[in-house]
Amino acid sequence: MAETTDVTGPAGASGPAQQHWIVAPGGPLRGTLTVPGDKSISHRAVMLAALADGVSTIDGFLEGEDTRATAAIFARMGVRIEAPAPSRRIVHGVGLDGLRAPDGPLDCGNAGTGMRLLAGLLAGQRFDSVLVGDASLSRRPMRRVTVPLAQMGARIDTAEGGLPPLRIHGGQRLQGRIHTLDVASAQVKSALLLAGLYAAGHTEVNEPHPTRDYTERMLAAFGVDIVFSPGHARLHGGQRLRATDVAVPADISSAAFFIVAASIVPGSELRLRQVGLNPRRTGLLRVLRQMGADIREEHPGEHGGEPVADLVVRHAPLRGIAVPEAVVPDMIDEFPALFVAAACADGPTTVRGAAELRVKESDRIAGMAAGLRTLGLRVDETPDGATIYPGVLHGGCVDSHGDHRIAMAFAVAAQRATGPVQIRDVANVATSFPGFDTLACAAGFDLRRM
Q1: Is residue 333 annotated as a catalytic residue, yes or no?
Q2: Which of 75, 204, 240, 371 could pair with 234 as two cysteines, CB 3.0-4.6 Å apart?
Q3: How does DSSP classify residue 137?
Q4: Is-above-0.70 flag for pTM?
Q5: In this model, does residue 6 exceed pLDDT 50?
Q6: From the candidates 251, 333, 403, 437, which is the catalytic residue?
């Protein structure tokens, strides 16, 4: 393996200070990188540690705006949370029934995960609460959570169309039930399981396709008696949580941009350290390997019940494929990066069964399609996906629509463009990947703030 430079992104960085990037095509990407901690696990770790009896330490906590918003919400409800060092939190749990009524609305920022999981958790409290978010989150649908919670006895009012804010009425008697979901969603499943902690009897969730099982694994780590298997989870209400220490692995959704970048830029070789490889999160790796990517796993281990390994990625020619629909739920956050890989492949790539992308932080199908067209490619959209036809990527100006993953995806696309790419509205990158621009430049990107 070629000599590499060891680079760790600034854990406490607050993200890009400016609103736009200019990214110019560069040479091979090389280095050993550590991407930030997993956002999904960081959210859940704070929530369960707050509900536990005793003191929990969280290492590898993502210092992003979304996860900090979740921590701030629990502080508003009487949980003492210390931050003795970047990426570390010490949470003094208050027990299952120890949260206090907040003195006003609880701001989730841009965190859809935070809002949906909190809806389930707060549905079982004695007090009323209101969940609000930023402009982007306020456009995201919440009925997929509020409707099944209502079937358990929760009372949650929404704005017109089932949108935030969520006004949650406390003091309701929740009843466990069997939920058979129409749409596979780890956020919905997690909300129902958290509500199930406060419900009488058993709560069971059955999914049409298996989704990530972070909540199930972490509940078990905190001492909850929960039975789960791919696509199924069941627990009984009233269980106490025991404090435990959590080591958060590196986020594969953040690593995805460097995995694709190293795959498409000739001469590249990157090592990404101790990336979380939960089986329900590795869909992108399976798809890229099917396309011909050279991705090796080294130094496997385990962080807090989650499998991890170093990923060593070398440039390799990619070929277009039809992405299997069965793998879509296992890579739903990685599709912006995949669209860029598809743009650089030999032959078209077709995505189907990904309608969920229409209701993320933005309409990611439309946003990626529009940006790739601006750079000179043909993209045919469908209601649940797209076909990407590869070609020469030209320079140009693309709009991220305030979506952090679209912004980072086009920074990767610029590495194969014929000229600089301006990416507008990148401030929200700080929600999930603080310090992305610094880490990208260390790996070889030519990225400047505007």
Answers
A1: yes
A2: 204
A3: G
A4: yes
A5: no
A6: 333
